[in-house]
Inverse folding.
């Protein structure tokens, strides 16, 4: 997957999914192509999926729903680990990413 | 007739720093992209004057996130018409009021939703809503905007529904405040 617009880019490298820019899409339907690409990574059942959010400056609540939905999909597959990388300099990440860990306690969250 | 839910009180007084904006429905078509530019503008506007001891980066983001979520709802559910915003900042407290028009059916559905929402702990409700969304692939909205504001940002929220003539729909004012730190 490599989805790129003026506002954001989402792309995969192996089983790492990178997110960059500002994502304010208009709802579940608008995020669907991105979720599809994320699910394709999960379908290959890698040992570890990494979500690299360190360059994602802004995510609206529909986007938070996207990450949460995907976390629940991963939770259904105990053999697949998940790691989420965030940045302390991006305020929404310290506020909202802990919810992913509450959904799936095995999720490894690093905000540095 | 006015019906209030949650906290609609305004604390900031005459000495507060203020901004007022009207997003006109015409002649430019008011749309989704106006949410981001408007919320970023107000976030930037106030973060430059939030004063000592307040993290300006966090203030800019929190103000912008809060306004963006409320404006997204206003754009999504409004029944035509302009959208008015007034923001103020005093002693580290940021307040915003966003007014738009919705139809009576939307108002009724939203009021029922608010009654349930205000009875519960927002953090618990947020996780519950996420689990429900995951089970329901047909749901188009996430419903997480208000819940993330209350749970992750500790925002105080209130909604005031004013009806004068039923045929004109309902004027909804969403009131939100944040303690900046």
């Amino acid at each position: 997957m490599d989805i790129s617009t003026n506002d954001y880019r989402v792309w995969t490298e192996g089983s790492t999914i990178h997110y960059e820019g500002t994502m304010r899409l208009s709802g579940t339907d608008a995020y669907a192509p991105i979720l599809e690409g994320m699910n394709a990574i999960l379908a290959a059942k890698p040992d570890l999926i990494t979500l690299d959010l360190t360059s994602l400056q802004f995510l609206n609540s529909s986007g938070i729903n996207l990450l949460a939905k995907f976390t629940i999909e991963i939770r259904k597959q105990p053999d697949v680990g998940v790691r989420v990388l965030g940045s302390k300099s991006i305020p929404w990440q310290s506020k909202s990413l802990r919810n992913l860990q509450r959904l799936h306690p095995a999720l490894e969250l690093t905000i540095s | 007739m006015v019906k209030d839910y949650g906290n609609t009180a305004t604390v900031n007084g005459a000495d507060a720093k203020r901004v007022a904006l009207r997003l006109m429905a015409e002649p430019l078509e008011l749309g989704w992209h106006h949410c981001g530019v408007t919320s970023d503008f107000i976030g930037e506007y106030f973060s430059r004057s939030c004063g000592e001891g307040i993290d300006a980066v966090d203030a800019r983001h929190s103000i912008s996130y809060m306004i963006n979520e409320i404006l997204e709802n206003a754009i999504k559910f409004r029944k035509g018409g302009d959208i008015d915003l007034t923001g103020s900042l005093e002693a580290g407290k940021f307040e915003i009021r966003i007014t738009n028009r919705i139809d009576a059916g939307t108002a009724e559905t939203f009021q029922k939703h608010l009654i349930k929402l205000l009875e519960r702990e927002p953090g618990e409700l947020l996780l519950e809503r996420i689990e429900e969304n995951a089970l329901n692939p047909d749901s188009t909205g996430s419903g997480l905007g208000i819940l993330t504001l209350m749970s992750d940002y500790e925002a105080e929220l209130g909604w005031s529904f004013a009806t004068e003539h039923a045929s004109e729909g309902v004027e909804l004012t969403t009131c939100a405040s944040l303690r900046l730190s």
Notes: The CA atoms of residues 35 and 64 of chain A lie 12 Å apart. The two ends of chain A are 26 Å apart (CA to CA). Helices of chain A lie at 28-43, 61-75, 91-96, 98-103.
